[in-house]
Amino acid sequence: MVMFQHVDGSRRNSISKHWIAILTASMLCLGITVAFSDDERDPVITVTEKVDDERIVHVFSVSEAYEYALSLEKQDLYLRAVPFYQGIIAIQPDNSDAHARLGYIFYMSKEYNKAQEEFEWKLTRDPNDVQANLLLGFTYQYGKKDPLSALKYYEQAIKNSEGDEKVAALEFAGDIYQLVLRDWDKAIEYYRLILHIQPNNVKTHFNLGACLANAGNFEEAIAQFQEVINTAQNSNHPELFEKAQQAIVAVESAQKSK
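The structure corresponding to this sequence follows.
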């Protein structure tokens, strides 16, 4: 059988401080403390960093710490953002946004077990969170090399998403059905759903063609590959033009030998 594949310092006088953590891994953060006013209504996060041999002390409220951490992320300074999110969680253990940001940073840093913990924490509070489901799926698929565990999170994301997020969830799930499970019918179903949202998605046309060919639906497979030929050179995937031409030749050959 031919297999077709796709492709802030007034707050410093606060009392009752306790040590939270030392992040030796980043070699940037010297320590994190949290402090409270006498009535414990004014929590403060203090983060001490060493940046370019300079000792820097930040004293922030929770909201200030969050905004600062986000600004660090926007500069691609992900590890420097970690202690600020950790300080927020020390004060507000149920701060969902801080957990989510930590999970993302751990994923990007390839600390997959820590990323998994953060995304799973978020999903115990909101099982339908699309981003958490997608990112936990990525963690399993690419970090832990476990696509079957990833699949259930993509499926959950599909149920609760729309637009581009839905397309992403459908694509990752469809690819698992195609490449891992070789469940052509399910992959075909998901690729068709993508094309309902994005009719000009060249990559999906190609993947749909591959699944149709593997399922023995040669005529429709050729039609999908022809759609790729018609549109690929003006798309984000011009490399698929030649591949689609080759695929048509292979499908026609499979037809003749059937």
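The chain is about 60% helix and 10% strand.
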